[in-house]
Amino acid sequence: MSDNKYSFLRRKLLASMLIVPAIPFLIVIIIGYYYYTGSLESEFISKIDRMVDDHGNLIESFIKERKSDLVMISELYSYDDIIAKGKIDFIFDSLIEKSDAFTDIGVFNEAGVHVAYHGPYELVGKKYNEAAWFKSVMEKGFYISDVFLGYREIPHLVVAVLKREPHKNWVIRATIDSSVFSRVVEQIQFGKTGEAYILNREGLFQTQRRSGGGLMEPDPDFETAPAVHEGVRVFVSEALDGTEYFYATSWLENNQWMLVARQEKAEAYRDLQRVVYLVLLIALLGGGLITGMAFYVTHMIVGRLDLLDSEKSELGQQLVRAGRLAEIGEMSSGFAHEINNPLQIIRAEQTLVEAILGDLRESGQLKESEDTRQIQDSLDQIKIQIARCAEITQGILKFARKKEVSETAEVDLPSFLPELIGLVKRKANVEGITIEQQIPKDLPHLKADPAQLQQVIVNLLNNAIDAIVEKHGARGGNINIEVGREDGSICIEVRDDGPGIRKENLEKIFTPFFTTKPVGKGTGLGLSICYGIITKMDGNMEVFSEEGQGTRFRIHLPVA
Ligand code: ADP
User: Fold this and answer.
1) Given the CA of residue 524, which atom of ligand 1 is nearest to it?
2) What is the pLDDT of residues 482-503, one digit of tens each?
3) Residue 224, C-beta contacts closer than 8 angstroms, at least 6 positions apart
4) To test the ligand 1 pocket, which listed residue (424, 431, 468, 527) has its Cβ within 8 A of the most ligand atoms?
């Protein structure tokens, strides 16, 4: 019932409890994720950018220095000076003192003939006027070759400078050991897959690449390399083998070479991956927590509403019952009054008949015989039945609270109750029933009519004894009286392990004349009178019972 009644509320509560915290939670996570990944990415980009820039500058300044060495020589010497015997050896020696990068040096006249040379080969007299490098230096004034290995298996390159003299232009050319900078580039390693290398404009390796690529071999991925550009460019590109790389490139030496640094994207993004896992974990835990809390709180609220509902309906039932009892009380007290009057007349008539009979016996007019004895028996029976009727009407009047004004006094339960229990204990013992009591000593006093309270407790105990005897016979049973405090009132509970009360009877037991006892044994007035007494004392009385399990009567009375 409550499931249907509150299912809409439950859904609404659940939805709002999930959505309200989930929105800021997700926003925080998303912002945090983008902020963090963004900063990690820009940190990586600036790192690789700086690396390429620094190494590019290193290489360029190396080449620039070597070039200015040659320019300086060409400025210092005239053609005639430099081809003088032994001069070129002297120049080489002084160059070597400054930098050991030079491996040979030579001078060429305008016709491309090698006129002076210092180095490991015999080159004087050889003619180079058709060589591409010679044509280039004659045209542009400066030439730098790509890197090659040479006979000594050391990376080299050739630098040539044109010296213009009137009618006598000449060229000075030197071979430079490029391993000085290529080693620096080749040794660059960041992470597991990070590496750097140099390519020429045709995409041939000018330095070796660690992951594969020998000197002057073509780079298979060069096609995707960016065209000549200014500064450093960072981008992601897929290599031929399908691996994605983060690239940083920079063009050097008048765009003759391209310095490349690269790292596998998966590795570069590994930190990011960790962030993703962390965010997922946080989202999972946080989400789980929010969901759990939402379910828990919703369950609590709906459960509380259910409880309030059942308390409300219980209260409603109690009100109806109390109203019905009050009505019955009104009716039955009128009825009792009506019965009482004829009963008094019958009693008066019976007394009169007895008096007349007595007189007749005394005067001897009435002889004792079987008939007179029968008349006397009838009269006695009438007397007994009148007394019984009177008892019932008294009971009805008590229930209806019309009779006797009660006298309230302060009752001290810890001494009052054991006395009472003592009264019924003997009867209980005969039936093999034990009465246990749990009565704290420090209870506050009650404001009640002690006689009426006694009537209530004795009634409950007697009912419990009757019930136990009905169930267990001579085997006996247990009665328990427990007293405790509850929110400014005192609670007295009488429990028994008798047969319990059927569900359909539970509603009726406070109703006058309701009894399950045989005719002549019960009047069905006991509990209704108890109920009347307790409500008059501003208390309340409840019953809890399950068939076969026993019964529990609970009375709440206000503290004095
Ligand atoms: P009576 O005792 O005269 O029957 P009551 O008003 O005292 O009248 O009790 C009404 C009915 O309530 C009893 O007949 C019995 O069926 C039931 N009852 C009362 N107390 C108990 C009890 N402790 N265990 C089982 N049934 C009980």
Assistant:
1) 8
2) 999 988 899 999 999 999 999 9
3) 237, 238
4) 527
